[in-house]
Amino acid sequence: MDDPDLLARRFEEHRGHLRAVAYRMLGSLAEAEDAVQEAWLRLARTDRPDTIARLGAWLTTVTGRICLDLLRSRAARREQSLDETFVPDPVLRPLAGPADPEAAALRADSVGMALLVVLERLAPDERLAFVLHDLFAVPFDDIAPVVERSTAATRQLASRARRRVAQARPAADPDPVRQREALDAFRAASRDGDFEALVAVLHPDVVLRADAGALARGAAASKVLRGAKPVADSALLFARFNATARTVLVNDGVGLVGVDEDGAVRSVLSVTVADGRITGLYILADPDRTARLELPERAG
Fold first, then answer.
1. The whole model's pTM is what?
2. CB-CB contact of 207 with 226 (8 Å)
3. CB neighbours of 33 closer than 8 A, spacing ≥ 6?
């Protein structure tokens, strides 16, 4: 494969997949793009790229290794992965209508904010094994060299991660209609100042995570609340922001985007819903990260 243009075209065929892998590994859109770019640079520096039998598999494991190094560096600095208020970067899309198969397909291929939050609690090696095997069906034989373990030990890593994900991930209804019904009820109750209605639409064990950025972590703006009544109290305090928010798809679920007077994204709220009640709320209000988001067309 001596033709650099051909090599670049072959890489571009895999870019979307690699971006999806890196996003699930890192929870950061900017870092995911950087990881994919680094994977391209490593491919371009390879002496004989034509000898790579399975380019997609090779790129996937290389991207995984890059992400693993970034996660280990994070853990060594005791940064985001250990901060309970951290909310991963959201992917914003327009709501999918019944005649909108493209948006519906994008939603089906998405990953929930709840899962990304749980993945933040995993050790770097566990996260790699779980993401590559359980989400992308990469064989353990291919993952083992990346984590420098035997195939059997790598299998145990993924199994341990799977159990932790199952224990920590909140119940969630994938139906967007039921999600929107619960979100609309939450929004109406907070707008009307109806505390009892808010409590009724919230699961008793609901968890709210609000991330206002690195400078605000530890202050009132960044917080974790548990229980229907504390979350309802908080919702009433910020009801004026929800009143003007627009409805969009946030990753694989329905959510709200708050915008400023110029139409720039100020905050993003996403929810998980089960049995008609909200089990989790995830709010990103970090100005450094929301500034990089664009409001989708056809936002409600």
1. 0.86
2. yes
3. 19, 22
State whether 181 and 161 are in the same domain: no
List, for residues 5-21, the tens digit of each pLDDT value. Answer: 888 999 999 999 999 99
- State pLDDT tens for residues 179-203: 999 999 999 999 899 999 999 999 9
Give the count of beta carbons closer than 10 Å to the beta carbon of residue 172: 19
Range of 8's domain? 4-88+122-168
Other CB atoms within 10 Å distance of the CB of residue 97: 10
CATH number at residue 81: 1.20.140.160
The Cα-based distances of 155 to 60, 119, 140, 296 in angstroms read: 18, 17, 6, 40
Burial 63-96 (b: 16+ CB within 10 A, else e): bbbbbbebbeebeeeeebbebebbbbbbbbbbbb
Asked whether 273 and 72 are in contact (CB, 8 A), the reply is no
